[in-house]
Amino acid sequence: MSRRLLGTAIIASLAVTLTGCGSGGSSPEDNNSLEIWIRQPADSDAAKTAQKLADAFTKASGTPSKVVAIFDDFETKLNQQAAQKQLPDIVINDTAQIGAMQSQGWLQEVDKASLAGSDQVSELAWKAATASDGKTYAAPFSAQAFALFIRKDWREKVDMEPPETWEDLATLATAFTEKDPDGNGKKDTSGFVIPAGTKRGYASWYASSLIYANGGDFVKANGPGAFTATMNDPKTVEAVQYLQDQFCTTKTVNPGAVSNDTTVTHEVFEKGQGGIYLTGPYVLSRFVNGIGTDKLEVVPVPKGPSGGPGTLGEGENVYLMAGSENQEAQKKFAEFAISAEGQRIGMDKDNSGPIVRLPVNTQVDMAGERQDPRWKVFQESYEHAVYAPPVTNWAPIRQDSADSINAVWADCSADVRAKMEELNTKLTQELQSQQAS
Questions:
Q1: pLDDT digit string (tens) for 113-136?
Q2: Which helix (H) or strand (E) holds 432?
Q3: How far apart are CA 388 and CA 187, in angstroms?
Q4: Integer CA distances (angstroms), 60 to 88, 172, 190, in order
Q5: N or C of the chain: less Cβ packing under 10 Å?
Q6: pTM of this structure
Q7: Of 349, 175, 371, which Cα lies nearest the Cα of 276?
Q8: pLDDT in the model for residue 22
Q9: Edge-to-edge strand order for the sheet containing 147-151?
């Protein structure tokens, strides 16, 4: 048994004992309080929005609630709570975590039909709340798609139009690198800024939008619980090769990118060291404030030469955790979270603390909540967004992919096709270890 599978089995054996156990309250008087965990830094604007959501739920339902905001080592702390048989009642967590959480026995199945307001939630969002066994284990809460942040002032300085093809995008990146778009008389800018490091799988996370935009994928479903690795698909290889060309041939990527995570890359973009950043809408208000609204535009990821359109889709679900003594309150919170009122609170208008990036409730008017028209680009891009597949454990697949993709960007002599064949073999083995092949 692989170490990954062994670890999952050990945690699962702990988790199956949770049913019937108390919620994560730390003292008897907390037992009637709904404990809600969210992956956000404590005291952040997003954590404050989560508290507003909980307070509004408490006011509407009469159920006391408590928000616990954790960012670092979130899954590790959930594992610890599972071992102590004290999972929180509610966890608001990434859609990509559904496979791992469900396989460990942490989640209650959700009956969509009995959930008030479920018919107002988009079908694509419900898809991200469905595990590989075809059952629903969460209520959708937030969605997001990825698009290109571009320095509009730079683009106008080099006299070019917004990119509509991959060739246009590469040409614009070259102009930003070669034509001194910031006007300081120095050749010190780059076209692309990329979080291309391996930490938390960032290289594959970044590449995924272009892979999807070209009709490629990491793995594809072959039926319930069955997947096949597709990193050797020509469309996937073409996307990785396109990015290697930016690193190695045209040299339009910011220096040091192969070691950077998003924290560093956000700063690189804000400091004007590069002009094109493919990322999500959660940094829109930050960049508007830090760079200037008139200097910034958002455009869709161009359709690839061999497929598309497509881009990475992500979001958060409301997970109803197993073992809770507050099952009726769990259901009520899920209903409130997907309601128009709950979604509007989570959106936080144009402020800096949204925990709902794109609303999953189709009755919520985006334009009525947010005045910045750049949000509309993300909303339209979501129509062809691709979520990570609901394999048992997506993390090792993303990490293995990041290691291989990072290697071909860091080593310009690397043969992309050969490396993607090697990666495909590795992902096949990983799927087999997860009994998902």
A1: 999 999 999 999 999 999 988 899
A2: helix 416-433
A3: 38
A4: 21, 51, 51
A5: N
A6: 0.88
A7: 175
A8: 43
A9: 190-192, 274-279, 147-151, 296-299
Overall size of the chain counted in residues? 437
> Torsion over CA of 239, 245, 250 and 252, rounded to 10 degrees?
60
HSE (side-chain half, CA atoms, 13 Å) at 359: 26
Q: Please write down the HEC assignment for all residues of 106-158.
A: CECCCCHHHCCCHHHECHHHHHCCECCCCCECCEEEEEEECEEEEEHHHHHHC
Q: Cis ω on the peptide bond leading into residue 305 (within 30° of 0)?
A: no
d(CA 433, CA 437): 8
Record the tokens describing residue 96, joined without a space: 């990509």
Distance linking the first and last C-alpha atoms of the chain: 16
For residue range 21-64, list pLDDT tens digits in order. Answer: 444 444 434 557 999 999 999 999 999 999 999 999 999 999 99
Residue with tokens 């008897």: 28
Structure tokens belonging to residue 16: 């199956």
| Mode of pairing for the β-strands spanning 385-386 and 190-192 | unpaired
Distance of CA 117 to the CA centre of its chain: 24
Label each residue of 191-232 as H, E or C: EECCCCCCHHHHHHHHHHHHHHHCCCCCEEECCCCCEEECCC
Q: Tell me the average pLDDT of the chain.
A: 92
Question: Under a CB-based contact definition with an 8 Å cutoff, are residues 144 and 315 in contact?
Answer: yes
DSSP classification of residue 392: S
The whole-angstrom separation of Cα 265 and Cα 206 is 12
Please state, as a whole number, how many other Cβ atoms lie within 10 Å of the Cβ of residue 292. 12
Which tens digits make up the pLDDT trace of 246-266? 999 999 999 999 999 999 999
- Which of helix, strand or coil describes residue 183? coil
> Identity (one letter) of the amino acid at 330?
Q
CA–CA dist 135, 117 (Å, integer)? 18
Instruction: Report which residue type is found at 351.
Output: N
Strand-pair category, 227-229 with 358-359: unpaired
Q: Compute the half-sphere exposure of residue 319: CA atoms within 13 Å on the CB side of its CA.
A: 29
Distance CA 169, CA 146 (A): 16
Read off φ and ψ for residue 319, nearest 5 degrees.
-95, 130
